[in-house]
Automatic annotation (TrEMBL):
<keyword id="KW-0694">RNA-binding</keyword>
<dbReference type="InterPro" id="IPR045330">
    <property type="entry name" value="TRM3/TARBP1"/>
</dbReference>
<keyword id="KW-0007">Acetylation</keyword>
<comment type="subunit">
    <text>Monomer and homodimer.</text>
</comment>
<dbReference type="InterPro" id="IPR044748">
    <property type="entry name" value="Trm3/TARBP1_C"/>
</dbReference>
<dbReference type="GO" id="GO:0003723">
    <property type="term" value="F:RNA binding"/>
</dbReference>
<dbReference type="GO" id="GO:0141100">
    <property type="term" value="F:tRNA (guanine(18)-2'-O)-methyltransferase activity"/>
</dbReference>
<dbReference type="GO" id="GO:0030488">
    <property type="term" value="P:tRNA methylation"/>
</dbReference>
<dbReference type="InterPro" id="IPR029028">
    <property type="entry name" value="Alpha/beta_knot_MTases"/>
</dbReference>
<dbReference type="InterPro" id="IPR029026">
    <property type="entry name" value="tRNA_m1G_MTases_N"/>
</dbReference>
<dbReference type="Pfam" id="PF00588">
    <property type="entry name" value="SpoU_methylase"/>
</dbReference>
<keyword id="KW-0949">S-adenosyl-L-methionine</keyword>
<keyword id="KW-0489">Methyltransferase</keyword>
<dbReference type="InterPro" id="IPR001537">
    <property type="entry name" value="SpoU_MeTrfase"/>
</dbReference>
<protein>
    <recommendedName>
        <fullName>tRNA (guanosine(18)-2'-O)-methyltransferase TARBP1</fullName>
        <ecNumber>2.1.1.34</ecNumber>
    </recommendedName>
</protein>
<feature type="domain" description="tRNA/rRNA methyltransferase SpoU type">
    <location>
        <begin position="51"/>
        <end position="192"/>
    </location>
</feature>
<keyword id="KW-0808">Transferase</keyword>
């Protein structure tokens, strides 16, 4: 990766349960990261979600701020962004309303996404793309695995072809209007909610 990333990694530790901002491939083992998520869930009284929302391809601070807020509200385990610099943007902060203080944020640059997705696959995550393809599943018929990684596309170009090949499944949102595309934050929010709804139902059935 680059020496500058390695240097930043060495300086990053999980020291504050209220605010966890980490670059990918830091020195924290995956097991420790998992325990940190569990610790956060216990302290904040939230469900121990296994949903990772990947927004590295999104470059509008308003969309990222909104996704941060939505991810935190519904208890996602982490939000992945292309750069942590977005967090300092006033538009991001206006939409996030401080959600970044309570949600683990992970920096994965777009050029690192292939490696990141492959690593998550080895950890048992299903890689889900929000995209309309010939084999897309309707959101109303898709059953989310517990360990789900949601990959959101760029505002204008969606998910690039080189990443489509690394998806396990594509899920699309049924639409009835003339306009055939939703804002990426809205699309992400709908899938985050459906994952959360299914997991809540599952937990109730197990009780």
């Amino acid at each position: 990766i680059g020496s500058h990333l390695a240097e930043a990694d060495s300086q990053t530790e999980w020291t504050d349960v209220q605010k966890k901002i980490i670059p990918w491939k830091n020195s924290t083992p995956s097991l420790d990261l998992e325990m940190a998520f569990q610790d956060r869930a216990a302290k904040l009284g939230k469900s121990n979600s296994r949903l990772i929302v990947v927004a590295s391809l999104i470059d509008k601070p308003t969309n990222l701020g909104g996704l941060c807020r939505t991810s935190e509200i519904f208890g996602a385990s982490a939000l992945v962004v292309g750069s942590l610099h977005y967090i300092q943007d006033k538009q991001f902060q206006h939409l996030s309303v401080s959600a970044e203080q309570w949600l683990p944020l992970v920096e994965v640059k777009p050029s690192q996404l292939v490696d990141y997705l492959q690593q998550k696959k080895t950890e048992g995550y299903t890689i889900i793309g929000v995209e309309q393809t010939a084999k897309s599943f309707d959101l109303t018929e898709y059953c989310f695995p517990e360990k789900s990684l949601l990959l959101l596309g760029n505002e204008h170009e969606g998910i690039p072809a080189n990443l489509i090949h690394h998806l396990d499944v594509c899920v699309e949102i049924p639409q009835q209007g003339i306009i055939r595309s939703l804002n990426v934050h809205v699309s992400g929010a709908l899938l985050i909610w459906e994952y959360t709804r299914q997991q809540v139902i599952k937990q109730k059935q197990q009780q």
